[in-house]
Amino acid sequence: QRGAVLAGLGTYLPSYVLTNDMLAHVVDTSDEWIRTRTGIRQRHIAGDGERTGDLAVEAGGRALASAGVDTVQALVVATTTPDQTCPATAPQVAQRLGLGTIAAFDVSAACSGFLYALATTTSLIRSGLFDSVLLIGSDTFSTTLDPTDRSTRALIGDGAGAVVVRRGAPDEPGALLDFDLGSDGSKVDLLLVPAVTPTQRAEGRADNYFQMRGKPVFSNAVLRMTESVTRLLAEVGWEAGKVDHLVPHQANARILTEVANRLGIEPERTVVNIDQVGNTVAASIPLAMAHGVQQRRIRPGDRVVLTGFGAGLTWGTAALEW
Ligand code: ACO
């Protein structure tokens, strides 16, 4: 049977680090408030002129190197902050990575973007259309924020994380087993960036900035991720107790704890790197994966569940064997 496997992992974080104390100098907040309410200590912020495509090229190059390949047949960029409204970010990233004239397109599903793109990529490989795809989650979501809004500025960071997905047998290391995806467009107003272009955002009108209703986002995130993981575990026949690692979208440490509790997955089996990077939108899950692997927590043969939730509303879950 034709399957898809994860074959390489690469990450990139902008060099500029904004700590909670630094943020407390520009908006009315404190390190203590942010740490206790969100678990975040710092976030990386893209520099002037450093765009989503730039971050994607760095992470993508590292993923190719980690997979030991210099070419793939397609490139997918998951992002909600593309370099421009049209065209997609992916074709330029493909050129800059020296990948030539391969198929290249973006997937937009906010914080669930990486999982939506991973499901798409896996399907393209299983269908026989491609044998190898580079998938990059990259966002410079800090560019959408109201500089005076303490609640969103405390949460968001910029970054990119990438994987190479290639054709492989379902019992090979890295095998992607199954997915659960969903959306609820009736709750679009909970997380929304009304502006459609970087230029409109730069005009600085308050209604162009990212708007978030924190409390209902919190409760919907817990509910939807818990439901999605539960559905997928039933589908693949895994009990929660047999999951070695839960790798959730890093939105708020308290959300992650609540999801893990409801699922019956111990805190030690949940990968958390939100303290270092904040919420990096489409980059969040591959950055957390890389964190778990670098710390040697995620080991060959482990059962891994990735889950995410974001604007749309959208959510998604993937099961794989590392
Ligand atoms: N520093 C100090 N005070 C703050 C801060 C801050 N950084 N942020 C919010 N507050 C204030 C609020 O203004 C509010 O003050 P008020 O009562 O005077 O209006 C007070 O804290 C309490 O606010 P609550 O919303 O009750 O605080 P809560 O405990 O819910 O925490 C938070 C707020 C952290 C935003 C939480 O609701 C949350 O994490 N929600 C989920 C957010 C999320 O995951 N978003 C995804 C965004 S990314 C995407 O989808 C693209």
TrEMBL record:
Keywords in alphabetical order: Acyltransferase, Cytoplasm, Fatty acid biosynthesis, Fatty acid metabolism, Lipid biosynthesis, Lipid metabolism, Multifunctional enzyme, Transferase
Residue ranges of domain Beta-ketoacyl-[acyl-carrier-protein] synthase III C-terminal in the record: 233-322
Location of this chain's protein in the cell: Cytoplasm
Active site (record annotation): 111, 249, 279
Pathway named in the protein's UniProt entry: Lipid metabolism; fatty acid biosynthesis
Residue span of region ACP-binding: 250-254
Enzyme Commission identifier(s): 2.3.1.180
Family: Belongs to the thiolase-like superfamily. FabH family.
Domain remark in the UniProt entry: The last Arg residue of the ACP-binding site is essential for the weak association between ACP/AcpP and FabH.
UniProt-recorded name of the protein: Beta-ketoacyl-[acyl-carrier-protein] synthase III
Organism, scientific name: Salinactinospora qingdaonensis
Organism phylogeny: Bacteria, Bacillati, Actinomycetota, Actinomycetes, Streptosporangiales
